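A quick aside before the break. I want you to see a complete sequence-to-structure record at least once, exactly as it would be stored in a machine-readable document. Don't worry about memorizing anything.
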Amino acid sequence: MNGAPRIASLVPSVTELLVALGLGPYLVARTGYCLHPAEAVAKVPKVGGTKNVNLAKLLRLAPTHVIVNVDENRLETVAALRGVVPEILVTHPCAPEDVGALIAQIAAAFAAVPGVADRAAALDAELQAEMLATRPDGRAEVPVLYLIWREPWMTVARDTYIARLLARVNWRTLPALDGGESGAARYPVLTGDEPWLTAVREVLLPSEPYAFGPAHLSLAQALAPSARVRLVDGERLSWYGSRTAAGLRYLRALADEP
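That is the input. The structure line, written in C-alpha cells, reads:
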C-alpha cells in the first residue's frame, strides 16, 4: 500500500470494527447508519444510506478502499465503483463463525498500518473465547420468532447472521427455511396466519432496524399466543465484528433468564 489509506465504509458493523482496529483516523466516508463509536465517527463525512449511497459525494472524497456488504449494499453501487476506486472489499459474514475471517480480511487489507495486526489478534482471541462459552450443548431447543419489521411483519431466514447467532444457544428461528446467499428471501414476510406460529415459544422484538417498543408487545403476543415476548437490543444481536463477542455474552444472558 502506497501512502496512507483513505477508507470509505458503507457497512455500519465494519465501521465500528475499523475503529476497534485503530483505523478510525483513516476513515474518510461512512453511511448515516454508521453510528458507532459515536465520538470516533462524528467528524467522518456521511455519503447517504447503505442502500442509497451518494456516489458523487463518495468519489469526491477520493477513497483508496471502499468496504461493502452483500446484504446491506446494492449490487449496482458496487458495480458503479469498480474500476474507479482502487480497492473494493466485499464482506458477507453470515454467522458468528464467519467473524474471525472478517477480522482477518480487514486486518490483511491494512496490515501496513502499525498496530492493526495486534489489535486483530486480541479481538479474535476474545471472540473465540466467547464462541466456546456459547454453545447449544445441553440446552433445550426453543422455537423463536425474531421480528425485524412490521406492516408487514418480517423475520429472518435460518442462514442469516442473526439466526445463526441465536442457534448458538439452541434457539431455532421459525420459519424453518434458508433464504440463500442474497435477496429478499433472507428476510421472509409473514401474513400472521402461518400454522407454525403456534409452536413459537419466544418472540424477540429488537430495537432495530424497526424500533420496537412496549406498544408492540401485545401485537406480537397476538401473533404467537403461546410465546413469551421480549424487547431486546437489536444492535447486540445483529451487529458483527468487534461487537460479536459482547453479542454472545448478551445472548447467553437472555437465554439464561428465567
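Two observations worth writing down. The CA atoms of residues 71 and 182 lie 6 Å apart. The longest helix spans residues 116-133. We'll return to this after the break.
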